[in-house]
Amino acid sequence: MTNALNRPGLGILFICLGVVAISINDMLIKLLSGGYPLHQMVFARSAIGLIFTIGLLMYEGGPRLLRTSMPGFHALRGLLVVLANMTFYAAVAVLPLGQATALFFVAPLFITVLSIPLLGEQVGAWRIGAVLVGFAGVLIMQQPWKADLDASRLVLLLPVIAAGMYALMQVLTRKLGATMRASAMAIYIQGTFLIVSAGFFLIAGDGRFAEGVTNDSLIFLLRAWVWPTSEDWPVFIGLGLCSGIVGYCLSAAYRMADAATIAPFEYVGLPLAILWGWSFFDEWPSIATWAGCALIIGAGLTVFIREQIRNRPQPGRRARWGRR
């Protein structure tokens, strides 16, 4: 890592701004999930967000920043974030927002694990133990011992699957961030969203694949496109603005600091999700969800604290920046 990119304070600020935008985005998508298909919302927010992101690209240096020697990595990164979004929002349409978000927040733990083989970061016994505790929290929320659940096992697994794909995407962001600006990486993401959602429209935009389907998550993915009402247009615009902010801030955060340092701050989104769920959807987490949240957040904070201890300069010794 170069010193120019080793700016953990600014990276933390960007991740917090991005997570706030994500939480608002999630709430708005859940608000619209009863009347519009997911791929229509993705197309609208990406088209609006792309305009915002192009402005940032021009500010940072213009179209020349889009040049890359690793187009395959960008394509993989874009595909991963699209799949993570679709998987997560398919769960949000059915699960309480706080529960889905809590399950998704194993992503920072996935990032810590993936940073070992993919980024060469050293992760000690404390952080490995924290990861295991965090996944125990997921197990508590999944409740495999319980026969009668409010949602199917598959729906409960969707946020965890999304977290794994998101974590891999962010580790790739760190790998690409040494050579590309955040605005350029965000434009590749927005472009992938547009291509995939347009493909969904061409194949399933008339809703024919939703006929006879009873699963709420599949209906959300496959229902027909409809023209937004006048009341919903501000929500669609809000989605676009959030999309632009998220794409830039997350790319900037993970290119400015180590993945294991940045990831725990994504937990800012968990209390926000619970707040939105309570305020807009009259949802309140169950005891199992609270217990799982406590373990996952505790594990994430342990990872962060250990990271700070390892990076603290020792008296009489030279600081070793970037070591893990």
Structure description:
It is a single chain. With 324 residues, this protein is mainly alpha-helical. Helix 5 (107-119) crosses helix 7 (153-176) and helix 6 (125-142) packs antiparallel against helix 13. Residues 317-324 have low confidence and may be disordered. The protein has 13 helices and no strands. The chain has one domain (8-311).
* Whole-number mean pLDDT: 83
Count of spatially separate domains = 1
- Figure out the total of helices: 13
Helix content: over 70%
Roughly how many Å is the radius of gyration? 20 Å
The largest β sheet comes out as:
none
Ends distance: 12 Å
Low-confidence parts = 317-324
Tally of DSSP β-strands: 0
Topology:
Blueprint: H1 8-32, H2 38-60, H3 71-92, H4 97-104, H5 107-119, H6 125-142, H7 153-176, H8 182-204, H9 216-222, H10 233-256, H11 259-262, H12 269-281, H13 287-311
Helix pairs in contact: 1-10, 1-12, 2-8, 2-10, 3-7, 3-8, 3-9, 4-7, 4-12, 4-13, 5-6, 5-7, 6-13, 7-10, 8-10
Summarize this entry quickly.
The chain is mainly α and 324 residues long. It is 71% helix and 0% strand.
Task: Jot down its keywords.
globular; 71% helix; disordered C terminus; mainly alpha; 13 helices; 324 residues
